[in-house]
C-alpha cells in the first residue's frame, strides 16, 4: 500500500498475541473492522450453518419431515403461477394446466393461424401454458371468457391468429383425462399394508360428508404414523360413473406414499376439482 | 479472531470465502455458525406452560425465536415484512381451531350445531399447543439452514430442507396475495383471516348472490384450496404453519 502505515493504523483493530493468519503463512497484527464483523454487512443471504447431517439431526434435533413422500408437502412446495380467472397466484400443482395446440385445419391457409387451448393433467415443457383454478363449477361459470385464458405472450403477440377454446367439451375433456388416469392406475395397484408411513387409505362411504381426513394411527410396531383417508363417496359425480368396483373400495385400498405418488396427487386434485 | 481465507476455485469464476468468529461468508451466503439464539433454551423443559404466567413466558420464548429468524427468511424487505406480519397474526389473532374445524367439517356449520369443543381450551383461556409450535420452529429452522453439499456428499435431509423453504416461501406469497385482495378486490381481511369465509362456501354455493359476491368466488377458491392443503399438511406433520 502506498500510504504510510501511521496514516491508517488508527482505523485498524489491534489483534492480541499472535496476530491473524493471512493466507500463505503470513501473520498480521492489525485487521480492518470490515473483516472482523463482516457478517453484518456482507449483504449476502443469511443461512444457518450446519456441518453435516449428523450435526443437524442429532445435536440440534431437526428431524426429517419426509416431505417428498407427503402429498400435501409436494403440492404446496410447487412453484407459484398466475391463475387466469381470479388473477391471483397459487401453487402450480393446485391448478389446472392449459396447453396451446396449433390446429391443423382443412384450409391450407388457415393451418398456422388457429390455436386451441386445452386442459392437460400435468404441466409439460414443450407447450406454452397457462393455469386456471381447479374447480368444475367455477370453470363452468366462467367458460364464456375462456379465450382470455390463453398465455399472455399469445394474447399480445398473435393478433392475426384465431384463438379457439372448445367450450362444449372443455370441462369433460379434463374430467375424462383425470378419470382415465385414476382408473388405469388403480387397476394396477398393489395394496400395501396399513403400516406404511404417510400412506393414503381410499374408501367409499356415502354416509360420511368429510372427503379428506388425516389421522394418527398406531402401527403394529407400536409407533404412531399419520394416514390420510380419501373418501370418494362424498363426490356426487363419482356415484354416476363409478371408477372402481364399489365392493372392492368399500374395504378400503391402501396406497403407498412413495410408489403411488402420482396417483395420490391426482386423486387429491380430483377431490378439489369435484367439490369446488 | 478474524482469519481471512481467499481461495480460488478451480472451476470458473474465483470464489472468496471470508471466515469471521461468528460466520462463514462465501460468494453466495452468509453462514451463521452459532445456533444458540435460535434454539429453545436448555431450561425450556422445566417451564410450566399450564399456569398463566408460565404460558406468557413460553409464548414469548417462541415468539422471540421466530422473530430472530426473520433475517434468514429473505433478503427482500417486503418478504421479511410479510413474515413478521404473519407471525403477529398467528400469535395474536388467528383462531386456528375454527380454521381446522371448517376444513374437516365442510358441512358442520350448516347444520347449525355448535362446533365440538376441541379439548384445547381451559377455563375459557387457550392452552398453548406446545408440541405443534415447537415442530413449527423446527420447520422454520430447517427452511433457513444450509448444509455444505458437494458432488460426492449429498444428504437426504437437505432435500427435505429445500421442501421446507419452498413451502414457507409459498405461504408468504399466499399471505401477500391475501393482502393484495384486501386492497384491490374488496375481499375483507375479516373474511379471509378471521371468519374464514373462503372455507365455509366450499360445499354450499350460495344461491342468491349479488354481483360483488360472485366476483369473490374464484378468489375464495384459490385461498381455500391453499389453506385446506396447508391444514392437511399441518395435521400430517404436527406443525401449525
From TrEMBL, chain A:
<protein>
    <recommendedName>
        <fullName>Required for respiratory growth protein 8, mitochondrial</fullName>
    </recommendedName>
</protein>
<dbReference type="Pfam" id="PF17068">
    <property type="entry name" value="RRG8"/>
</dbReference>
<dbReference type="InterPro" id="IPR031415">
    <property type="entry name" value="Rrg8"/>
</dbReference>
<keyword id="KW-0496">Mitochondrion</keyword>
<comment type="function">
    <text>Required for respiratory activity and maintenance and expression of the mitochondrial genome.</text>
</comment>
<comment type="similarity">
    <text>Belongs to the RRG8 family.</text>
</comment>
<dbReference type="GO" id="GO:0005739">
    <property type="term" value="C:mitochondrion"/>
</dbReference>
From TrEMBL, chain B:
<dbReference type="InterPro" id="IPR016613">
    <property type="entry name" value="Irc19"/>
</dbReference>
<comment type="similarity">
    <text>Belongs to the IRC19 family.</text>
</comment>
<comment type="function">
    <text>Involved in sporulation and maintenance of the mitochondrial DNA. Is probably involved in a pathway contributing to genomic integrity.</text>
</comment>
<protein>
    <recommendedName>
        <fullName>Increased recombination centers protein 19</fullName>
    </recommendedName>
</protein>
<keyword id="KW-0749">Sporulation</keyword>
Amino acid at each position: 500500500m502506498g500510504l504510510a502505515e501511521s496514516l491508517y493504523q488508527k482505523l485498524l483493530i489491534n489483534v492480541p498475541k499472535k496476530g491473524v493468519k493471512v493466507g500463505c503463512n503470513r501473520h498480521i497484527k492489525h485487521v480492518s473492522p470490515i473483516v472482523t464483523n463482516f457478517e453484518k454487512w456482507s449483504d449476502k443471504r443469511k443461512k444457518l450453518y450446519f456441518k453435516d447431517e449428523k450435526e443437524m439431526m442429532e445435536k440440534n434435533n431437526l428431524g426429517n419431515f419426509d416431505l417428498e413422500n407427503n402429498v400435501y408437502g409436494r403440492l404446496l412446495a410447487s412453484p407459484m403461477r398466475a391463475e387466469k380467472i381470479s388473477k391471483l397466484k397459487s401453487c402450480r400443482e393446485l391448478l389446472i394446466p392449459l396447453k396451446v395446440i396449433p390446429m391443423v385445419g382443412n384450409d391450407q391457409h388457415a393451418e398456422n393461424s388457429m390455436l386451441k387451448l386445452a386442459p392437460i393433467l400435468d404441466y409439460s415443457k414443450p407447450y406454452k401454458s397457462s393455469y386456471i383454478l381447479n374447480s368444475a363449477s367455477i370453470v363452468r361459470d366462467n367458460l364464456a371468457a375462456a379465450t382470455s385464458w390463453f398465455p399472455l405472450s399469445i394474447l399480445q403477440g398473435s393478433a392475426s391468429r384465431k384463438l379457439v377454446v372448445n367450450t362444449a367439451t372443455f370441462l369433460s375433456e379434463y374430467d375424462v383425462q383425470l378419470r382415465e388416469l385414476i382408473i388405469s392406475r388403480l387397476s394396477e395397484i398393489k395394496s400395501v399394508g396399513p403400516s406404511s408411513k404417510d400412506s393414503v387409505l381410499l374408501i367409499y362411504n356415502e354416509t360420511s360428508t368429510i372427503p379428506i381426513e388425516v389421522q394418527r394411527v398406531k402401527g403394529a410396531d407400536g409407533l404412531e404414523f399419520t394416514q390420510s383417508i380419501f373418501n370418494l363417496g362424498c363426490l356426487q359425480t363419482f356415484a354416476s360413473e363409478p371408477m372402481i368396483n364399489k365392493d372392492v373400495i368399500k374395504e378400503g385400498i391402501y396406497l403407498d406414499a412413495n410408489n403411488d405418488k402420482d396417483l395420490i396427487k391426482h386423486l387429491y386434485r380430483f377431490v378439489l376439482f369435484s367439490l369446488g | 479472531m478474524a482469519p481471512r481465507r481467499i481461495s480460488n476455485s478451480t472451476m470458473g469464476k474465483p470464489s472468496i470465502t471470508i471466515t469471521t468468529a461468528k460466520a462463514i461468508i462465501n460468494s453466495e451466503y452468509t453462514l451463521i455458525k452459532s445456533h444458540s439464539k435460535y434454539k429453545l433454551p436448555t431450561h425450556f423443559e422445566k417451564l410450566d406452560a399450564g399456569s398463566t404466567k408460565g404460558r406468557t413466558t413460553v409464548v414469548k420464548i417462541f415468539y422471540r425465536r421466530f422473530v430472530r429468524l426473520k433475517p434468514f427468511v429473505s433478503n427482500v424487505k417486503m418478504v421479511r415484512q410479510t413474515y413478521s406480519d404473519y407471525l403477529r397474526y398467528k400469535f395474536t389473532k388467528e383462531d386456528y381451531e375454527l380454521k381446522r374445524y371448517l376444513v374437516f367439517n365442510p358441512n358442520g356449520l350448516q347444520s347449525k350445531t355448535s362446533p365440538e369443543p376441541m379439548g384445547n381450551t381451559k377455563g375459557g383461556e387457550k392452552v398453548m399447543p406446545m408440541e405443534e409450535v415447537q415442530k413449527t420452529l423446527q420447520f422454520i429452522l430447517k427452511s433457513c439452514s444450509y448444509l455444505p453439499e458437494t458432488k460426492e456428499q449429498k444428504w437426504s435431509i437437505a432435500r427435505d430442507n429445500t421442501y421446507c423453504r419452498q413451502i414457507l416461501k409459498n405461504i408468504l406469497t399466499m399471505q401477500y396475495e391475501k393482502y393484495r385482495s384486501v386492497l384491490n378486490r374488496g375481499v375483507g381481511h375479516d373474511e379471509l383471516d378471521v371468519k374464514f369465509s373462503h372455507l365455509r362456501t366450499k360445499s354450499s354455493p350460495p344461491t342468491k348472490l349479488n354481483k360483488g359476491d360472485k366476483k369473490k368466488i374464484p378468489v375464495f377458491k384459490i385461498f381455500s384450496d391453499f389453506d385446506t392443503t396447508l391444514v392437511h399438511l399441518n395435521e400430517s406433520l404436527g406443525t401449525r404453519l
